[in-house]
Design goal:
single chain; mainly alpha; 71% helix; 0% strand; DUF5133 domain-containing protein; DUF5133
């Protein structure tokens, strides 16, 4: 899985948080709600999550973390390939086929 650019994640997260505040200020406004839901959906797609709240949390973690930490969270196959390319060996053991 490709990692999204941190600048894009940051931009979409800021937009999501701004529309979240606007929606909380005017919950009856259907256009504000629709835009908030659209920004949440975009963040979900970008972060590979089903829930906008989970996507926002994942985006914050991704922006705080280094790229190597983020790779380990993606799964053993990706992390193993990165370790192999960088010349280091992983101490973790993975089931066969991963």
């Amino acid at each position: 899985m490709l990692l999204p650019a941190k600048a894009e994640v940051s931009r979409h997260l800021r937009r999501y948080r701004a529309w979240e505040r606007a929606m909380l200020a005017a919950p009856a406004d259907s256009s504000v709600r629709a835009t908030f839901e659209d920004t949440g959906y975009t963040l979900c797609v970008l972060m590979g999550k089903r829930c906008a709240r989970e996507a926002a949390d994942a985006a914050e973690r991704y922006l705080r973390s280094g790229s190597e930490t983020a790779l380990w969270r993606q799964g053993p196959r990706r992390a193993k390939n990165v370790a192999r390319r960088s010349g280091t060996r992983s101490n973790r053991r993975f089931p066969a086929g991963l």
